[in-house]
Amino acid sequence: MGIIHAPAICCGTGLTGLGQARLYLFLSLGSALADWRTMGTLERETAIYRALLRHLAGVSLVSYGRHDRALAPELGGLTVLDNRLGLPGRLYRLLLSTGLTIRQKGPAVVKTNQMQGADLALRAARRAGHAFVARCGYLPSNIAIWREGEDSTEAQRWFRLEARVLNAADCAVVTTPAMAATLAFRYGLDPARIRVIPNYVDTDLFTPGGPEPKRGDVVLYVGRLHVEKNLEPLLLAMEGLNAELWLVGEGPLRPALEALARERGLAVRFLGRVDNQQLPALMRRATVCALPSKGEHHPKALIEAMACGAAVLGSDAPGIREIIAPEVSGLLCGLEAGDIHQALRRLLGDEALRARLGAAARQQMVADYSFARVLDLELCMLSEIIG
C-alpha cells in the first residue's frame, strides 16, 4: 500500500468518534507558548487547534513554560497544561512522561508538534493509554546532515530517536511527500501509517492585496539565520544589483553576515524578528522573495510569499523544488553566488515575468495549502486514529 495522500475533501460528514475525543498537543522539548508569542507566531501556530476544537471534546496544549496558562484567554477555548509549579526541568519532564497529567476517561490522542521531545510524548501517551501521533514538520536528522554531514554525531543521534519514535507511533504525520518517502526508506516505516499534511497558509491574510508602494527594488529573505540557509552566497549575489536585501529573522550567523555586508559595502537591512501578521506587507513590498537554502522541508515563508503573489526565487534543493514549479510559479537556481546573482538579475529586470510567476504562485497556494484543506486533512487523520 502506498503513502496516503488525501484529497482536498476526504471526510466531509463522515467523521466518526471525534465529539467524545480529546487531543493533547505536546510542544517541542523546552518550548513555551510565550516563545511563540515573542516570535509573533502564537496566532498562526494555534489556529488549526482552535478550529479542531469545534469537532472535539477538548484540545490541550502541553507546554514547558511556567506561566503559559495566562495566555489561555487568547486561545479560543484551548486548555493549557504548563509547569505552573515551577518544577526543575528534569523533574517536570519526568512528571510529563508518567502520563499523569493527561489521563482521562474516553478516547484521546497525543500528538507532537515536532520531533524534539517526541520520545517523552510517546511515553506519556502509552502510560496514559492514549493513541500517539508523531508529527514532524521537518526532520532534525536532515538539518543535522545539511549542517554537519550524514556521519556526524548529531545526525546519528537523530536517526536513532526518529527511528524509535516513528516506528512506535500509531500514525506519522509529515508535511511533504518527499518526507514521507524518507520515512519509508530510511526507517522502514509502513507507508500505510504515514499521512502527508502540509503546512497551511492563511490565504485571507497572505494575499496579493493592493499595490504596495515601491521605492526601489527589494530582495526579501524570511527565515532563520543559520548555515543551512545558505545566506552568505545570497549576500554576495547582491553585488552589482541595484537592489536592497532585507533579511527577516534571527540566528547565530547574524554577526558574520553583518560583517560581510560591511566589508563588501552591500545594501543589506537586518530586520530581526517580524510578527507573522506583519509579513504580508513586507512580501508585497518586495520585488523578489528569495530562499537559497541547502535544503528545506515545507518552508512556511515560501508558501506565504507565493500566496501574496510574490515573484519567488528558490534554490534547486529538497523541499523547495517540490513547491516551486520552475518557470511557472517561480524560478529555481543553484546554490552558488553566481547562480543566485544571475537569477535575481533576470527577475529584477523583467516586470512581466514577475507578474506572471506571482499570479501562478497565488493560484497554486490557494489550491494546495489553504487553511480549509489542511484542517480537513487533520480531521481525517484524527477520525481514522480514533475510529
**First CA to last CA: what distance?**
20 Å
* Tally of strands: 13
CATH class of the largest domain: Alpha Beta
**How do the strands line up in the largest sheet?**
3-2-1-4-5-6-7
CATH topology of the largest domain: Rossmann fold
Question: How many separate domains?
Answer: 2
Helix percentage range: 25-40%
Gross CATH architecture of the largest domain: 3-Layer(aba) Sandwich
In percent terms, what proportion of residues is strand? 15-25%
Question: Shape from CA axes?
Answer: globular
Unreliable spans: 1-9
Considering the chains and any ligands shown, give keywords for the structure.
2 domains, alpha/beta, six-stranded parallel beta sheet, 387 residues, 40% helix, seven-stranded parallel beta sheet, 14 helices, Rossmann fold
Explain what you see.
With 387 residues, the chain is of the alpha/beta class. It is built from 14 helices and 13 strands. It has helices at residues 33-39, 42-52, 89-97, 118-128, 140-148, 153-168, 177-187, 231-237, 254-264, 279-285, 300-307, 337-348, 351-368, 371-386; strands spanning 22-26, 58-62, 79-81, 108-112, 131-136, 171-174, 194-196, 217-222, 243-248, 268-272, 288-291, 312-315, 331-333. The strands form two sheets. The chain has a seven-stranded parallel beta sheet, with helices on both faces. Strands 10-9-8-11-12-13 form a six-stranded parallel beta sheet, with helices on both faces. The longest helix has 18 residues, at 351-368.
